[in-house]
Every structure is written in C-alpha cells, then in structure tokens.
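re the bet — no i am not wrong, look at it urself. input seq straight from the record:
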Amino acid sequence: MDFPEFVQAVATRARLTREEAADLSRASLELLGHMLSSGEARELAPELPDELGDYVRQGAERHERLDFQEAVVRIQRHVGLSGPESDRGFRAVLATLRAAVSETGFDNAMSQLGHEFLQAIP
C-alpha cells in the first residue's frame, strides 16, 4: 500500500478529509513509534510507505507507555481535531495499518501496545 492509498483508507474509515487523514496518519504513526521498542519500530517502518515509515523511525527515538485514551488525547492535541474525530481517526489508522503490513509485523507491534489497542480496531 502506498501513501495515497493509506491516507485514502484512513479518510474513508474515519470520515475525514484527505488532508486531515494525512496529518492524523503521520501523528498516529509517530506516536506508535514512541510506544514501540526501538527494535520493533525499526522492523515495522520498512513495511510502511516511506512517508509514514519515517515517522515511526522518528518516534522510536524516545519510548513511552500510553493507554489507548491517552494516545487519542495526544493525537487530538497534535492535529487539532475533535475528540470523537481523533478517536475515530486513530482507530482507522490502526485498521489501515493492519491491512498495510504483514500479519507478523502487525501482531508484533500490537503485542507491545496492549490488548486495548487491538480491541479498538473496528
């Protein structure tokens, strides 16, 4: 899946504009990079379009644990969408990520985030 396809999938799933979906995708994947181990981020990044893999790599420079709602709030602050839009959008990014990368890559990443992230995917 290339960058325009990823963004379009997020836009459709989250009912956002392409610009909002692109901003949300970048912010979400950078945040996921923060939440993954640096090794896992390095493994996941090459499976994504270059434009998004770079954000995962950048995020891996620091590590932090967040629960799902904390992640949504952080994304909301970063992109300036409403709470419901940010929640829908983050869920859409996770669903699109699942479609865009290998099953192993997705499962390994989700295993580091916690069960609530997997449950959040529509």
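see?? The chain is about 75% helix and 0% strand. told u. also The two ends are 19 Å apart (CA to CA). so pay up
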